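For reproducibility, we list the full input for the manganese (II) ion complex.
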Amino acid sequence: MNTLFISDIHLEANKPHLTRLFLQFLADEAPQADALYILGDWFAAWVGDDDRTELTEQISAALLKVAQQRVPIYFMPGNRDFLLGEKFLQSAGCRLLKDPTIIDLYGIRTLLMHGDTLCVDDKNYQRFRKLARNSLLQKIFLLLPLSLRRLIARFLRKQSQQTQTYIAPEISNAKQTEVARVMKEHQVNLLIHGHTHRPSIHYFNLNGNLDGNNVCHIVLSDWDKTGNMLICQPDGLQRLVNFNK
Ligand code: MN
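The corresponding predicted structure, in tokenized form, follows.
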């Protein structure tokens, strides 16, 4: 028995090794899980559920197969694939989670996020995020012809890649005070998110009292040459595991 968490796979047509890793993961690991959570940036880009390609068909078919083996699969949007909607998720047998979501993980009250909202020092990104998540703007964007949406996405990606190289690492990271704040606000003992590509399992003392390190903050890994998953077991054991087949 275990629950699996993954994020930041960044699937795209011109990186077939990621697709291979992901399909292998779905075949080998996912069918035995109690549940699978995909916490955002599953795809490198998403411009609408009508943008079906060979890649999206392959992925949705493989996920549906896992879902049909009675494994609940949940998807939380990331900053790259927040336009991924119910239509695609239905075809893949997945359920949509809002960011943030609280779950009961074998008795542990757990907060799930993509993680981008924790990077509060990146003011430019937070401004962009506010615009990008505006529902009216999203509706207008989705009305544009698919070819134009692809073009805009490519332009935005190039821009973001250029800015990323100028941003200091501490600015693009989750801020510890914000991590503590959201954990307090939601009264959770465990926080799991991705986005920053800095995998770690970190215990700390939330209340400043003397009862030791009482909460846990887990950051998932992105996928590159290897895949990576967080395995959580009913006995409270948590492991970040790399794999490459
Ligand atoms: Mn992200």
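The radius of gyration is 18 Å. Residues 146-164 form the longest helix (19 residues). Both points were considered when choosing residues for closer inspection.
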